[in-house]
Amino acid sequence: MEMSIEIAGIRWKNSITTAAGTFSYKDSPKYYDPALLGAVTTKGVSPERWAGNEIPRIAEVTSGMLNAVGLENPGVDVYIENELQILKAAGATVIANVAGHCKEDYLTVVRKLDITNVDMLELNVSCPNVREGGMAFGVDPDAVYGLTQEIKAITAKPVIVKLSPNVTDICKIAAAAERGGADALSLINTLVGMRIDLKTGRPILANGTGGLSGPAIKPIAISMVYRVSRSVGIPIIGMGGIMTGEDAYEFLLAGATAVAVGTAALIDPQAPVRVLHELEACIEKYGKPVE
Amino acid sequence: MAEWVSGNQSVRIIENKEIASGIYSLKLNAPEIAAASSSGQFINLYLENGLNLLPRPISIADADAGKGIVTLVFAVVGSGTEIIAGFKEGKIVRVLGPLGKGYDLEFAAGRSVLLVGGGLGIPPLAYAARGLNALPDTKVTAILGYRDDAFYSNEFKDFTDAVYAISETDGAVDIKFGQTGNVIDLLDHIDKNNAMIFSCGPAPMLKAVYDWADARGIPTQLSLEARMGCGYGVCVGCTVRIREKSGAIIRRKVCAAGPVFKGDELVWK
Ligand SMILES: Cc1cc2nc3c(=O)[nH]c(=O)nc-3n(C[C@H](O)[C@H](O)[C@H](O)COP(=O)(O)OP(=O)(O)OC[C@H]3O[C@@H](n4cnc5c(N)ncnc54)[C@H](O)[C@@H]3O)c2cc1C
Ligand SMILES: Cc1cc2nc3c(=O)[nH]c(=O)nc-3n(C[C@H](O)[C@H](O)[C@H](O)COP(=O)(O)O)c2cc1C
Ligand code: FES
What we know:
The complex is a heterodimer of chains A (291) and B (269).
Chain A: E1 5-7, E2 10-12, E3 16-18, E4 40-41, E5 58-61, E6 64-67, H1 76-89, E7 94-98, H2 103-114, E8 120-124, H3 141-154, E9 159-162, H4 170-179, E10 184-187, E11 191-193, E12 210-213, H5 218-229, E13 236-239, H6 245-254, E14 258-261, H7 263-267, H8 271-286
Parallel strand pairs in A: 3-14, 4-7, 7-8, 8-9, 9-10, 10-13, 13-14
Antiparallel strand pairs in A: 1-2, 5-6, 6-12, 11-12
Helix pairs in contact in A: 2-3, 3-4, 5-6, 6-8
Chain B: E1 9-20, E2 23-29, H1 31-36, E3 42-45, E4 56-64, E5 69-75, H2 79-85, E6 92-99, H3 105-108, E7 112-118, H4 122-133, E8 139-146, E9 162-167, H5 183-187, E10 195-200, H6 203-215, E11 220-223, E12 239-243, E13 249-253, E14 260-262
Parallel strand pairs in B: 7-8, 7-10, 8-9, 10-11
Antiparallel strand pairs in B: 1-2, 1-6, 2-5, 3-4, 3-6, 4-5, 11-14, 12-13
């Protein structure tokens, strides 16, 4: 079946990618060929090595999970030399997820990635530790607009802006990203959540709160993709709790051009490829979603 | 060309038996895993109920490559292990593994290896004993600490030169030194000549074992636990601080670089 799509000028073999932070080719046993997917999205990278939060970083909740990894990563230089080159050599289309504590961090990472063979950039603008007004970029339309514009000015790579669901009106943030020149949007990132240990009376995560992902958030993600896709003119990569091809198909119906598989891959390493095959079956059964 | 690994392993339960109060021995017909595993490694067990999504990492307590059988020993401590305790013979379960890096048996060859286990950390050491027993000139002594009654201590007999067990509660086990106590109390009575330690058990015990061994210049390999999102190296949920040879402190994944680490590379709080 013809599954290929074009998103922000880049041809993907199919509409499936991995969600940032839930995939690594270099650090994992090789469960599948990354070139089978439309693209692979790698974990957030910062200008330097980040140590992340203390453990526990993971807690289970009903039909989902909380994570508070805190973007531990080896830094963009190590990423470019290792993960990126290995993935490109394997023939994958690669989206680098970009993290930063402040605007300069994002600019530094993008400048370095701009001169590599990475295919697309995804700006993770839901980091809670930014200088501007002490508020995360992702919840402030002006900050999202300003950052997107500055990034677009320094790179020729397609820029995807990844939106946080922890906002009053996600359409406002989406519009700001589009105005700033974003080539595509991805949504949703995780929702702020907490679990408290009954024995100790304290949060299970060392960080206190964490990001909620998995099937528990899917209806929220679907509704946000549905609303945002009707309010902007740029393509959307939908994610949040996709476990099966039917879930992926539902996101396409909601208005997504492509989808990302995250938490599902943590509990089934081959989930992205399985979802792809199930999506093909779904399209055969229900037809191609019309744009 | 990359070497593809099977990420979809469905295996049959051939036995699930309570061997002590709340502690179960689970045997799986898993030839691929049995053939590939070494002591100190673990497998992910999935509940597949749509609610408890995350893997339950359980250490391999034994692997019989000939018969294709993998044995796990687990305690009921929460909702997931409670469900697993109810799994019946014949049920097909999804697992992933073997995962992680286990004990360095080569380093142990020719030494006097003290296997220091606490509670649920004991069964995986019996698998290490099996491996060590096959090495030339290697002495193997098991030092087992229980809270209450002993379990899985007989499994050491065929593969060790001596087994000592101790319990925190009165008279529960065959206590060789005539007192209740913990593994450190036992260690003080053991011959330390040419010794090294493999240890698995609760974090406070590992710390006590490390301190005891470090003070005596005895090398250790310790099996850690961490809450895991994936168990196979991608989520970065499980990292601990490691001191590199250069002195630099970096974080490494318990699920991939471990769960077994050298005691002196860990950064203790
Ligand atoms: C490498 C490794 C090997 C292990 N080997 C064994 C073993 O051989 N036998 C055994 O009985 N137990 C072992 N454990 C601990 C075992 O994984 C937990 O007891 C089990 O996951 C608890 O699940 P639950 O659903 O009953 O508890 P819940 O508290 O309901 O679980 C909620 C979540 O927390 C996680 N969790 C809870 N306790 C622990 C813990 N101590 N360590 C890691 N994650 C935890 C669970 O996996 C789950 O994701 C091991 C843990 C690790 C990391
Ligand atoms: C362990 C973990 C790590 C994550 N790391 C990142 C990250 O580095 N950058 C990012 O933009 N999103 C990150 N996310 C969010 C996911 O990419 C995704 O947006 C979210 O989990 C929802 O999708 P899911 O329900 O399919 O997991 C992470 C999620 C998880 C579970
Ligand atoms: S548990 Fe996911 S990286 Fe270790």
